[in-house]
Amino acid sequence: MSASASWIARDAAAVWHPFTQHATWTGDDPTVVDRAEGPWLWDVDGRRYLDGVSSLWTTTLGHGHPEVNAAIAAQLAKLDHSTFLGTTHTPGIELSEALVALAPRGDGPELTKVFYAGDGSSAVEAALKIAYQYSTQTGRARPKFVRLDHAYHGDTLGAVAVGGHELFHEAYRPLLLETIGVASPGDRANGADRCARAVADLTATMDAHGDQVCAIIVEPMMQGAAGMLDHDAHFLRTARALADAHGALLIFDEVATGIGRTGRMWAAEHAGVVPDLLTCGKGITGGYLPLSAVLAAEHVFAAFLSRPGDTSPRTFFHGHTYTANPLCCAAALANLRVMGEQDVVARAARLGDRLGKLLEPVAAKDGVVEVRRLGTMIGVEVAPAGDRTGFRVCQAARAHGVWLRPLGDTVVVMPPLTLGDDEADLLADALDAAIDEVL
Ligand code: PLP
Hints:
Blueprint: H1 3-14, E1 33-37, E2 40-43, E3 48-51, H2 54-57, H3 66-78, H4 90-102, E4 111-117, H5 120-138, E5 144-148, H6 157-161, H7 166-169, E6 179-182, H8 194-209, E7 213-218, E8 222-223, E9 229-230, H9 233-246, E10 249-253, H10 268-271, E11 277-280, E12 292-297, H11 298-302, H12 326-341, H13 344-358, H14 360-363, E13 368-374, E14 377-382, H15 389-399, E15 402-403, E16 405-407, E17 410-413, H16 421-438
Parallel strand pairs: 3-15, 5-6, 5-7, 7-10, 10-11
Antiparallel strand pairs: 1-2, 2-3, 4-12, 8-9, 11-12, 13-14, 14-17, 16-17
Bound molecules: pyridoxal-5'-phosphate.
Pyridoxal-5'-phosphate (PLP) binds near residues 119, 120, 124 and 219.
GO cellular component, one term: cytoplasm
Function: Catalyzes the transfer of the alpha-amino group from S-adenosyl-L-methionine (SAM) to 7-keto-8-aminopelargonic acid (KAPA) to form 7,8-diaminopelargonic acid (DAPA). It is the only aminotransferase known to utilize SAM as an amino donor.
Cofactor: pyridoxal 5'-phosphate
């Protein structure tokens, strides 16, 4: 029995995996990852794979970067954990300053405060609660959220409610927040004028329900888990204007798009639009430790400050045991520092362009519906739909030494931002060969 087979048997006996149908999973021959370095993963049998999806879209500098490792080790030697409730600590303060300095600038408020959470979903959850409480503390309670069709914002109850996947709502419907779905500006089913349709839908929705809406939540420029649905910057400008006109907040969920992934530090920069709340996660620590954050505008923070004569405390009653864990903050600080020193965001833009070129022959193949890309966020939609085609392409790519993961019929390509030219060639060649074998 190979080492992988033995570990898979032990896994089947004791593990419950996320988003996984366990009746069939082990039959899919999962990879048992053992170690990683740079853009490479090795399984327990010593087989090497290029990490084509950045270990679920997190890896920026590659695995095992010596400076990030050293920063975590140094922090561990100094302070492992100390609560952020009633005390503070230096890495938490420094990271907040760094994030505020990096925050997007443009049409909208300045983002001046940072609230920490543990993963993307919990950052979204915090942002939703902030938005609702903001409405109660600045006028009157607005219980509704506007969300896009096909959106994905995570799995906690609030985050799943503002998602646009019926499949993820079905089992929990009685527990979900009240939301209003509007057409996605990236939805190909809505044709070439999809952005105009989405703008019209959002405008009509806000005209009809605006006084009930506390926030509009959007993944700016690219709806990732929806299948890499890119959209026009015009949609974001409209969302900003409509939120302002109706007194609602605008939330940009940059958990997937943030930290250089789209070739800019924030996807918001492609549109020059600044939201009132911005969530980030995934790449913030470069994939080393779990951390996420909500960047908030000063006017939002100010609504949570108590005033003489208040009848309610105005406090944001929210936080976790590991909020702003110092090791996670140290990892994020090191990741952001190295990214700055090595101009990784500009490198990501160049890598994205290179991958775009390399994938042109793939885009022209029969069975490839479309290649969609913004920076290094790439989706290769394959057909026939609904036949596990995307999954089969990823399995075939694995045999060529590249690890990929599909979103339904869309094969995701999201490598570490520092991927070298030879590795980019390997990735594109493997995908090309895998598609030929499967389609
Ligand atoms: N928001 C977006 C845009 C995401 O893509 C994701 C995860 O893919 C999340 C939120 C949830 O993040 P996490 O899986 O870290 O909870």
